Amino acid sequence: MITAAASTPASAVVVVVVVFCLVASGSCLLLAIIWANREQKLAQAVETAKDQLKNMQTPAVGADGRPLTPVQAQSGQAIDFSSLAKLADALEKLPVSGRLLIVSLGFATIAAVAAGTGSIASAVS
Predict the structure, then answer these.
(1) pTM, 2 dp
(2) Quick one: which H or E segment has residue 32?
């Protein structure tokens, strides 16, 4: 149990707030680690896709201007990869793990403030 410096027991509300905030902080920190791992794998996949896109060759075209392969002839328009690049840029600007880390620190701060306030209140009374 959390106690003040004068060994006065802390309020039950303070104990509940501190325990809740520490559990929430630990959960957010764990989620931040998981999301950081996922973001790293995603960044590697995007880089691999960009490299593969750079190395792609244009299909061979016949005398009539049509692609020689039947798959290209049936597809109509070429696949536009610009939306994939825009998605990759948007994902880079939204680091979930960073946000979860900040939330984790916020919960830990609330726990520290609540413990300090409870200790001061118990010492004064």
Answers:
(1) 0.50
(2) helix 12-55
